[in-house]
Input
Amino acid sequence: SLVPVNTLITNWFIHKRGFAISLTNTGLSAGGIVMVPFASNIISHWGLRVSLPVLGVIYGIVVIAATSFIKQRPSDINQFPDGEAPQTSSSDQHASVLSYSAQMRVWTRSKAIRTVPFWSIVIAFLMALTGQIAFLVHQVSFLGHYLGVTGAATAVSITAGASIVGRLFLGTIADRSDKRHVIMVCFLIQGLAMITLAHYNHVVILYLGTLAFGLTMGSIIMMQSLIIGECFGLVSFATVSGFVGLFTLSGAAFGPTIAAVIYDATQSYQAAFTIFAAISILAIGVIYFARPPDPV
Output
């Protein structure tokens, strides 16, 4: 769902895109906070056979009602991205990167894969998301050893809450900053959080490490969309974003399995989390090459 949602936001915003996407993606975590307790309650009372169709109907009604008010692009109602005509927005300090003409450039998949920025984005986020998804899948199992079931559940809630805070904070600075530098900081924080969690099991450190990890959890996937939009524009955003996701998420899907294999061999998550932390930090150097490419 991130591809169509972020495509809509990318169509409507250029210079305010980071803030707009941060607000929109906050719905992911907020929805989890609201819907998970609601779903758990009706499942406990009615069982899955009744609850799943009810949840499906609610989901369908809300999505259809919300999307009925959305236009695909500003030109559908004779507007421009950010509500500004191209000649007005071209004076912005980031015009060379986010100019209207650059954003309207067409990139096919074959053209995109022949650029260094495409593979920089693919490799960097593949490395970072592999560790992120692995930690999220094994989070309760890992923390449960030290915090118990209740404590681990609390830590998961902290992770979700921190992801909202992290996204909203980044949304206020991403539009004014070099997105590569913002991504580098996210990768660094994730790597430091994972290596800290791997080697220290004090209760306070476990909660703080989980908090730090949560700050980057939603932010990294949000920054992937923003760097793609900056490098490849709004016209081809869905094409390039979907193709990037084919590589990054397919590869990252193996992260939880890798962590499980290492755990079974060592009876500890220390080695797995240390490896994923190192990979996240290495991704910092890879994303440096994600500059807007010259036309192919």
Confidence is low (pLDDT under 50) at residues 88-95. The longest helix spans residues 116-173. The chain is about 80% helix and 0% strand. Residues 2 and 25 are 8 Å apart (CA to CA).
